[in-house]
Design a protein that fits this description.
461 residues, alpha/beta, Rossmann fold, UDP-N-acetylmuramoyl-L-alanine:D-glutamate ligase, twelve-stranded mixed sheet, 19 strands, 37% helix, binds ligand NPW, binds potassium ion, kinase activity, NADP, nucleotide-binding, kinase, EC 5.1.99.6
């Protein structure tokens, strides 16, 4: 099944294309509703179900679900504050053999929310708000059809109460809100119901688990990739990057630093030569600059030296605050990966005169304006480059710890050194980072996370 992630406009276009090819909207709704009913049945296991139906086609899906469950012998209670307003939803209503009522309260242990789907267009008020508030306060099992009803499908922000759902059933394709905060964290388990829509042209894709490989039989340390981490004013952060990079498959990790690192592990090579000289080593496959770099003039010079060396680079942390058009002059942007968190992304957009709203739009606009690959990290991670946007399943919330980004940057640099493109390297790194966090369990430190990158590798071999 396609893992395309669509905007509302793309969703509407895909539906239109399916209809032009001979499938009616009613057929799509039947397929969607019956596919969803199958999941509701699995969750309900015979217990009575309440279905909340709104005025549009999301409500139409609700009537199809109610009819399907009724035909299986379920006790179904349908709450529909208004009559359906689209032809297809009216057809669905007329095919539903049961009664409806206009408002709550609802008592059943399973509630299916079909108030609004991707057609949500304004603040949720009145009886709809009351129903969503009641749903939020209830301890019932909550199922959202397509998207939670108060969620804007393109950006994941809310226009009303957002209950914590147990299950969200996406119809036809994933919407961006399924992988963006705050909505993604409230959707529970997510399942996709295939409607056979044409989705080949989608620019957004859900990242699939990478398959990594062990070194070739004749590998040596240089063929596996030499990573150089360019240190700066603060020693701790680049060391964390090295600790992670050393466990993500690199053959060799070096720290280019002009100060001593008494806490460095014995298996890390520290190069104290002049940076320009150190960068002349032809065997370097990728550089990481930014963690602990500082933002002063010397730091800027170190970043400039790294960029003008022509090597593939991962830029993180302070490097993202220093980066501007001047530093990128003559640099091939297709060899550079940026790993900003939300604040760094906003700062980058300002530096490059990119006007955009929200994380997704910022990452896309920055990449389009500069040609750089952008890994916009955070609880909802987005990767943009080569005209594509990749979305990711949610990682552990324990990743919100100081040094977590340094670890991610170190993994990115190692993957980039291992003959991966910036997009591939970043994708590998997000999965390794998430898996390391899963293995580290609760309340880990960044160093413990870096150590778990090694066992995380095993999950992808
Ligand atoms: N993808 C597919 O292939 C398939 C998709 N299907 C389903 O269609 C869904 C999209 O349907 P949709 O376009 O009819 O929009 P939907 O979300 O039901 O809501 C629009 C209605 O709500 C109203 N309204 C909006 N906001 C409001 C507010 N705050 N407060 C009050 N009213 C508000 C709005 O009114 P208006 O803005 O027009 O005044 C309009 O009446 C999609 O999510 C999926 O479930 C399947 O059936 C078939 C296959
Ligand atoms: K819904």
């Amino acid at each position: 099944m396609s893992e395309a992630v669509l905007t509302v406009a793309q969703m509407v276009a895909a539906e239109k294309a399916a209809m032009a090819a001979g499938t009616s909207e009613w057929e799509l709704m039947l397929k969607a509703g019956q596919g969803a009913a199958q999941w509701v049945h699995r969750a309900a296991g015979g217990r009575p179900v309440t279905v909340l139906c709104g005025p549009g086609n999301n409500g139409g899906d609700g009537y199809v679900i109610a009819e399907d469950l009724g035909s299986r012998g379920y006790d179904v209670d349908v709450i529909a504050p208004v009559e359906p307003s689209t032809d297809t939803a009216r057809t669905a209503r007329s095919q539903f053999g049961g009664d409806t009522r206009e408002q709550g309260p609802f008592e059943h242990a399973i509630v299916v929310d079909c108030l609004f789907g991707y057609g949500l267009s304004r603040q949720v008020e009145g009886v709809y708000r009351e129903l969503l508030e009641e749903l939020s306060a209830s301890d019932c099992f909550k199922i959202a059809i397509d998207v939670p009803s108060a969620v804007r499908s393109d950006c994941g922000s809310t226009l009303g109460p957002l209950p914590r759902y147990d299950l969200t059933l996406a119809l036809g394709a994933w919407k961006q809100a399924h992988f963006l905060m705050p909505s993604m964290a409230m959707m529970g388990a997510k399942e996709l119901i295939d409607l056979g829509l044409p989705l080949d042209d989608a620019h957004g894709v859900l990242s699939s688990r990478p398959a990594l490989s062990a070194p070739a039989a004749d590998a040596h340390k240089y063929t596996r990739g030499l990573v150089a981490v360019v240190a700066g004013e603060m020693p701790g952060a680049p060391l964390l990057s090295c600790e992670a990079g050393m466990r993500a498959g690199a053959g060799y990790v070096k720290l280019f630093s002009d100060r001593s690192h008494p806490d460095a592990p014995a298996d890390l090579v520290i190069v104290e030569d002049d940076l320009d000289e150190a960068l002349e080593d032809d065997r370097i496959d990728a550089l990481l600059v930014g963690p602990g770099l500082g933002r002063g003039e010397t730091s800027r010079e170190r970043l400039a030296a790294a960029l003008t060396s022509g090597r593939q680079c991962v830029l993180d942390a302070d490097a993202l605050h220093l980066l501007d058009d001047d530093l990128l002059e003559g640099v091939d942007p297709s060899r550079i990966l940026l790993t900003p968190h939300e604040g760094e992304l906003a700062a980058l957009c300002e530096s490059f005169g990119v006007e955009a709203d929200g994380k997704l739009d910022r990452a896309r606009s920055l990449s389009a304006a500069t040609g750089l690959t952008v890994l916009a990290k955070g609880p909802d991670t987005i990767l943009v480059g080569e005209g594509t946007t990749l979305f990711f399943p949610q990682g552990s919330s324990w990743l919100s710890v100081a040094g977590s980004g340094d670890v991610l940057a170190g993994i990115c640099a190692t993957r980039l050194a291992g003959s991966r493109s910036p997009m591939e390297a970043a994708q590998d790194a997000v999965w390794l980072h998430h898996e390391a966090a899963r293995l580290a369990g609760p309340a880990f430190t960044a160093l413990q996370l870096a150590h778990c990158v090694k066992p995380a590798m095993a999950s992808f071999l």
